[in-house]
Amino acid sequence: MTSELLSGPDLGAGYLHQLSLDRDGERTSITYHAQDGGADANGPPKGPLDVLGFVHPSNPCMFGGPRCWHRRFLLPSSDANRTRHTYNRNRFVLQTMIDQAYDHAPVAIETALSEVVRRISAPLAQDRVEWYIGGSTAAWLLGAPISPGDIDLGTTRPGVDRIAPLLAEYLIEPLAPTDWPRGGIVRGARAFVGTFQEGARVEWAVPIEPKPPVPFAEFSGMVETVRRLPIEFHGHTIHVSRPEYALVRAAEKRRTANSHAIAEVVRTAGVDRPLLDSLLERSSLSSSVRDELRRSVGGR
Prior knowledge:
Helix 2 crosses helix 4 (about 155-165), helix 3 packs across helix 5 and helix 5 (about 245-250) packs antiparallel against helix 6 (about 255-270). It is built from 8 helices and 11 strands. By secondary structure, the protein is α+β, with helices and mostly antiparallel strands. It has helices at about 80-100, 110-125, 135-140, 155-165, 245-250, 255-270, 275-280, 285-295; strands spanning about 1-10, 15-25, 25-35, 70-75, 130-135, 150-155, 170-180, 185-195, 200-205, 230-235, 235-240. The chain is globular. The longest helix has 23 residues, at about 80-100.
C-alpha cells in the first residue's frame, strides 16, 4: 500500500491529525488519522476516540504511529476535496464531542433535531423515502426524561444517500462505505449539527451486504421491519422507533436510571410484547435481567 498526505499535521482536541489518500492496487481509500498530540496540541486529550467510532489499529500506522486512531473510507481520489471538508469539520468540533462524551457537557438534542427535521422532511417526503428517529432520542421524544448522547436516523439505502447532501455543511464523515465497529461494514455518514461549540452528533447507515432479515431489526436498512410510532415535533409529523428498543439497549449498557425512565414510557404507550420478547431473546442480558425488564413494563 502507498499513501499520500492530503492534510496535516493539524491540531484539534489534544490530538494531531492527518488526512491521507491510500492506494492498494486499484483500490483507494481516504483515512483520518489522530494521535495524542501532547502539549503541542493543547493536550493530553480527555479520552480515547473509540466512543466516536474511531479504530485503534493493531499495528502502527504510517502517519499516526503506534498511538494512532483512524477512520477509513473507501472512496476514489476524486473525493479528496469533499473529504477535506468533513475532515476539517470533524477536528473543529472534536473538542465539543469529547466534552460531551467524557465531561457530560450538554448535547443540544432538541436544537439539532429541529434543524435535521427541517432540512430532510420535505425532500424525503417528496422522494417517497422513509426515515425515522431511533435509539435513545426516540425514547426522549416519547417523553422519557433522559439525556440522549446523539441522534440516530433509520432509513433505507436511497435514504442514506439522500440525507448526506441535505446535511452537507454539517458532515464530519463523508458518505462512503466504511467500518463502524459496532455495525460492521456499512454505507453511511456522520454529522455534527450545530456550531463548533454546541450541537449534537447525527449518524445514519445501512449494511453494505444484504443480511438475513432479523425480526424487528431497528437499523437494518429495511424500514418495514421496524416497529414505529408517529409523533408531532416542531410542526412536523415524524416517526420514531418504539421505546422497547431503547429500553433493552439501556439495560445492556447498565444505565439503570435510563431503564427505569424508559420503562415508564413503554407502560404508557402499551408494551409491544412480541417486539420486547424478540429484542430480549437476542440481547446479551441474563435471564434474570430479562425477567426484571418484563416486570418493569407490567409483564410476566
